[in-house]
Design a protein that fits this description.
Layout (H helix, E strand, L loop, with lengths): L8 E4 L5 H12 L3 E6 L2 H13 L3 E6 L5 H15 L4 E4 L20 H29 L8 E8 L10 H7 L1 H13 L4 E8 L5 H6 L2 H10 L8 H12 L10 E4 L6
Parallel strand pairs: 1-2, 1-4, 2-3, 4-5, 5-6, 6-7
The protein binds NADP nicotinamide-adenine-dinucleotide phosphate.
Length: 261
């Protein structure tokens, strides 16, 4: 059976851990040449090694989304190595959570956490789109119904709110607006732009920072009586990046167990 991303070049930001690492592994299994990216080279190389060990094609390019020049050089280096970019998964985010290491309630807000969240989740996301879009346009052939694609990862909790998350949610909510705007502007050039809006998924960082109380709070709001796993988000990214979704753009696919969160 043909693999769904055979020969495609896919950049996945924030793939040194969590949802991004799971997405990188799935994309490689489906035949993509995967660029693993993040700030932490050691973790990035570990993800690369595990994909290579499973027979995938991948390499690591460091990038700090808080720095425009670093984003520009991620795209330049990707084009240098692979000659094209077919898919971007804009997944990296400053994930300030309800409690734990990176408390972000409004009463605890300081300038560092505010600036960090804005720099990564809003500015970094927009620079990433600016620098990757020319290559994505080059990779598409809209006249032949061949598209390239961006999938940006949003957070479904932004819709109804949750305690202790005003900064994180305020800087993640714009993702859905960015996606709708770009979809209308670049559809004629064959670039599809969609969002996967994730509910609570038990990644290592979530396990470390979420309290049991908060997990139970979310579970009570879920229609399904369990949490998502990283592969649930990776599956949605895979669908939206593949030809199966060639007529899908400007939309948000919510993967959150039917949660009101
Ligand atoms: N897990 C959930 O329950 C959940 C729920 C809703 C939405 N989401 C969204 O899903 C995405 C992934 O979350 P996750 O749970 O997998 O988190 P995670 O394990 O903490 O991963 C975050 C990734 O982003 C990268 N990153 C953070 N700041 C960066 C920066 N300034 N520049 C470049 N890379 C940066 C990190 O890599 P380095 O440290 O190597 O830089 C890491 O690979 C995020 O967009 C998050 O908002 C997650």
């Amino acid at each position: 059976m043909a693999r769904r991303l055979e020969g495609k070049v896919s950049i996945i930001t924030g793939s040194t851990s969590g949802l991004g690492a799971a997405t990188a592994a799935q994309f490689a299994q489906e035949g993509a040449r995967v660029i693993v990216s993040g700030r932490n080279k050691e973790r990035g190389e570990a993800v690369v090694k595990s994909i290579l060990d499973s027979g995938g094609d991948t390499s690591f390019i460091a990038c700090n989304l808080d720095d425009e020049a670093s984003i520009e050089s991620l795209i330049a280096e990707a084009l240098d190595r692979y000659g094209r970019i077919d898919n971007l998964i804009a997944n990296a985010a400053a994930t300030a959570t309800a409690s734990g290491e990176k408390t972000a309630g409004i009463l605890d807000m300081d300038n560092e956490i505010l600036e960090d969240s804005i720099a990564t989740n809003i500015r970094g996301m927009l620079w990433l789109f600016k620098y990757s879009l020319p290559a994505l346009i080059d990779a598409a052939r809209p006249g032949a119904s061949e598209t390239s694609s961006i999938v940006a990862i949003g957070t479904s909790g932004t819709r109804n709110g949750a305690p202790g998350m005003p900064i994180y949610f305020s800087t993640k909510a714009p993702v859905e607006v960015m996606v709708r705007s770009l979809a209308t502007e670049f559809g004629d050039r064959g670039v599809r732009v969609n969002c996967v809006s994730s509910g609570l998924v038990l990644t290592e960082s979530e396990m470390k920072t979420m309290t049991e109380e908060f997990r139970q709070y979310v579970l009570k709001l879920n229609a399904l009586p369990f949490f998502g796993e990283p592969d649930d988000i990776a599956n949605a990214c895979l669908f939206l990046s593949s030809d199966e979704a060639k007529y899908v753009t400007g939309t948000t696919l919510t993967v959150n167990g039917g949660a009101a969160f």
